[in-house]
Amino acid sequence: MVDVKKLHEIYGDVVRTAPDEVSFAREEAWHDVFSSYKQFPRNQTFFKAPPGQPDNLITTVDQKKNTRMRQVVMPAFTERALAKQEPVIQSYARLMIGKLVDQAVSTNSGETGSTINIVDWLNWFTFDVIGELTLGESFNCLRNETNHQWVSLIFNSIKSVWGFHVLLPLKLSLTDLVMALAAATRYYIGLEPFLIRLLPPRIRKMQSDHYATALGKIHRRMNRSTAREDFMTPMLNSNNPNFTKMSLEEIESTTALLLVAGSETTGTTLCGTINLLVQNPIELRKLEHEIRSNYKREEELTFRTLQTLPFLNAVIHEGLRLCNPVAGGLLRVAPKGGATVCGHFLPEGVSDCNECLYILHSTDVA
């Protein structure tokens, strides 16, 4: 990502990064690739289900399969459906803030203030929220002030396989790192299965335990009726009668990936945004002033009212630009017959490497 950004700075908005890959740093590319009447298929090198797991909504490159599953899942992600989840998110936000206040005022020396690992707290928050929204049950990380066993399993398995500590300076989420590194091995025929066979039995067991634990939680949710709708509700109700539109295996694989993709990635972006604010005190004070001058009580902070704060939303967009949860890009391939992107014709099969759209040509918050 960093190297491609440098190429754009030297050669301009459109750069060939490989014989069959082109990177665009123009806003119009979003419309041409993702809103065009011509569908750009997902790049099979980057979109692939984990070994031993069935295809799912997020990893499938089959457009018909993706459309079929999307029609089942999408009712859970409409604006109206997500608005109903506000009380859940608010409750965990209040719990986290309350815990942080307790940490700040309870020191052995009697002085106000405390050193806090905000990375842990934001990951606990996002895992608790995604557990509640997806399965109707929390991981209770915030309440217990520690990682749930399943959460630890995720981090440990990924760190063990990919040596995450070496890649921390890249500021990418664990999920994004796995996708990027796994895709890199697929450029060389036979390398990926060879490396998988080299994994120690302990690591392979850790990965299988992670998926088995996720399946256990998913099945517990499927066997439980709940009054409050969650992300699994459309997959289990009349929207998917007798699993005819989305199979049980596809539900299991999609939900397991949602639990990871909707938690750790969000926590990483929040951490990155806060880190940038701390390094830019003028912008931090401006953001504090905007919020404190518009609200007198915490109860007044709602999804609807927060959308009206211009500087807050500028900070969010800038945080997403600089610490994007999908920093590897949403790579696509030119469709059959080729297609034109930003005035440049791409022959059939050429990859559109568009991750630099997250880096260049965005409004600065300063």
In short:
By secondary structure, this protein is mainly alpha-helical.
List keywords for this structure.
single chain; 366 residues; mainly alpha; Cytochrome p450; 2 domains; four-stranded mixed sheet; two-stranded antiparallel sheet; 18 helices; globular; disordered C terminus
Mean pLDDT: 82
The shape is globular
Strand order of the largest sheet: 1-2-6-3
Major beta-sheet overview: 4 strands, mixed
CATH homologous superfamily assignment of the largest domain: Cytochrome P450
Q: What's the CATH topology label of the largest domain? A: Cytochrome p450
Total helical elements: 18
Measured between the Cα atoms of the first and last residue, the distance is 24 Å
The run of helices and strands is HEEHHHHHHHHHHHHHHHHHEEEE
Structural category is mainly alpha
Number of domains: 2
Percent of residues in beta strands: 5-15%
Extended strand count? 6
Overall CATH architecture of the largest domain:
Orthogonal Bundle
Walkthrough of the structure:
The protein has 366 residues and is mainly alpha-helical. It folds into two domains: 85 residues; 214 residues, Cytochrome P450 (Cytochrome p450, Orthogonal Bundle), CATH 1.10.630.10. Strands 1-2-6-3 form a four-stranded mixed β-sheet, covered by helices on one side. A two-stranded antiparallel sheet has the order 4-5. It is globular.
